[in-house]
Design goal:
This protein has about 475 residues and is α/β, with parallel strands linked by helices. The chain has 17 helices and 15 strands. A hairpin with a 2-residue loop joins strand 14 and strand 15. The longest helix has 27 residues. The protein binds one RNA strand of 74 nucleotides through helix 1, helix 5, helix 7, helix 10 and helix 13.
Length: about 475
RNA sequence: GGCGGCAUAGCCAAGUGGUAAGGCAGAGGUCUGCAAAACCUCCACCCCCGGUUCAAAUCCGGGUGCCGCCUCCA
């Protein structure tokens, strides 16, 4: 079954066909670097990271571009508040974003262009728009004339006259039409400026993405992504600018991710429920955050709650516990000793051909508009089967199974750590501060008590460990421990 | 006011006309010194009312209730 993607432009799922065989050209609107990155930014980044990883898994080469907006009103506002140049503000938050994304295991795009680094491209595109009559100058500004672009409103499904009758269009004397938007803003005191044919100033918000996507991916490329909120006006304006300038189609597939709510409320600064990635990373393992974010289809809203995070953690514990079992089984039953024609060998052979049940179900789910929630279900089903096999003492094929889980998990960005490293990971915040050495000493005492059949003492030690977030598990092969987080 | 989306078990969440995935919680069981982990079993007339169809959670119409965008926002 071929990959189908929901295309915002047509409001339907459509079979994906790249413009160039084997290559996907993808542009995603990144952040405006004016404040700490929040869980909503993380969702967008993780969603498109998942999409990139899936394309790669399918054998595509992905030309992935995600921009940083480093020239903007909000950045300027912040720079005034702190009395430092706006470039310092932008640099700071770009750096933070990179650190946060790295922590979340989000792959770095091939290019991460900035507005300030592409002034020449931006100015060139505005010149073309002026020359072709789609733009006009007024009071030192340059505006795009929406009436000159007949298909304006097509992407977001709006009509010009309907928008005009809306109550919330700003009044601006310089604009010929209230819906016209700025391509270039004339210099104002205290703002960063660049020289242009229309005098000093800075670009409007929308033109940067048109100019930068063109610079790296060409006039016409496969997929353009971003948060749902960007559909209008940002992406609508991009379409108008890009198509007007190039005279070519712009983007084949528009992909928009849904929002993150916090405890059933929209996240906003005024509500005080602004959840930064940093604060999350202090409390949860990065892969737990990822698992939480991909447990819901990317277009639906996802609600952040402590309960949902606890569930995500529990689920990831389950996967890693299985990996640990498989690793141990693989060590106990080397592949070489697999009996000819045995279950293990058949499993391994199926794996080689990429026809395992897991791969097939996982791929089928992801092919359906990157349905990570359904893909996860395939992972759970495979895990239950593998655990049952291990329970029965069937150790053959464990190494291949573990490798397959890691491979498929890798597309989702989970199961990429060593099981014990994950299971014993301790968040920066919360939990008792106990060292592995201390735990080992307690376990030694406890096992001595168990050997002496002093179960009261053994249970007392276990309770004490549990009170400090250490879960003790006895088995035939010895005692294991992990942190409850 | 305009445009769009969503309503599936206590909670979260898939579901592409053919008789409801998966996870969490819960109940019972196997295993265990006891636990834990793991496994097995159980747990939904898919918001309401019409319609199309042999057949609808899925399509159409009408309600009701949430949510988003239209202004900076991932």
């Amino acid at each position: 079954m071929p990959l189908v993607i929901y295309n915002t432009r047509t409001r339907r799922k459509e079979p994906f066909q790249p413009l160039e065989p084997g290559v996907v050209r993808l542009y995603v609107c990144g952040i405006t670097a004016y404040d700490a990155c929040h869980v909503g930014h993380a969702r967008s980044a993780v969603v498109f990271d998942l999409i990139v990883r899936y394309f790669c898994w399918q054998g595509y080469r992905v030309r992935y571009v995600r921009n940083f907006t480093d020239v903007d009103d909000k950045i300027i506002l912040r720079s005034r508040a702190e009395n430092v140049p706006s470039s310092v503000i932008a640099e700071r938050y770009i750096q933070e974003y990179r650190e946060d994304m790295a922590a979340l295991g989000v792959l770095t795009p091939e290019h991460e262009p900035t507005v300030s680094g592409h002034m020449r491209d931006i100015i060139a595109m505005i010149e073309v728009l002026l020359k072709k009559g789609y733009a006009y100058q007024a009071n030192g500004d340059v505006y795009f004339s929406v009436e000159k672009f007949p298909r304006y409103g097509e992407l977001s499904g709006r009509q010009l006259d309907e928008m005009l009758s809306g109550a919330r269009v700003e009044a601006n004397e310089a604009k010929a039409n209230p819906l016209d938007f700025a391509l270039w803003k004339g210099a104002k005191p205290g703002e960063p400026t660049w020289e242009s044919p229309w005098g000093a100033g800075r670009p409007g918000w929308h033109i940067e993405c048109s100019a930068m996507s063109h610079a790296y991916l060409g006039a016409h490329f496969d997929i353009h992504g971003g948060g749902k909120d960007l559909l209008f006006p940002h992406h609508e304006n991009e379409v108008a600018q890009s198509q007007a300038a190039s005279g070519q189609p712009f983007v084949n597939f528009w992909v928009h991710n849904g929002f993150v709510n916090i405890q059933h409320e929209k996240m906003s600064k005024s509500l005080g429920n602004f959840l930064t990635v940093r604060s999350l990373l202090e409390r949860y393992h990065p892969e737990v955050i990822r698992l939480f974010l991909i447990s819901t289809h990317y277009r639906s809203p996802v609600d952040y709650t402590e309960e949902a995070m606890a569930t995500a953690k529990k689920n990831l514990d389950y996967f890693y516990t299985l990996l640990q079992r498989l690793d141990a089984a693989a060590a106990a039953a080397p592949a070489a000793s697999t009996a000819p024609g045995g279950a293990g060998e058949r499993q391994a052979a199926a794996g080689e051909e990429g026809e395992s049940v897991l791969r097939r179900k996982f791929g089928g789910a992801m092919d359906n508009d990157f349905n990570s929630a359904a893909a996860l279900a395939a992972l759970f089903e495979a895990s239950t089967t593998l655990n049952a096999r291990l329970d029965r003492g069937e150790l053959e094929g464990s190494a291949a199974a573990a490798a397959e889980l890691r491979e498929v998990g890798g597309v989702l960005g989970i199961m990429q750590r060593q099981p014990l490293e994950y299971l014993r990971w301790q968040p920066a915040l919360g939990g008792a501060r106990v060292t592995e050495e201390w735990v080992a000493a307690q376990l030694e005492r406890r096992n001595a008590a168990r050997r002496a059949r002093d179960y009261a003492e053994a249970d007392r030690i276990r309770d004490e460990l549990q009170a400090r977030g250490i879960i003790v598990e006895d088995s035939k092969d010895g005692t294991q421990w992990r942190r409850s987080g």
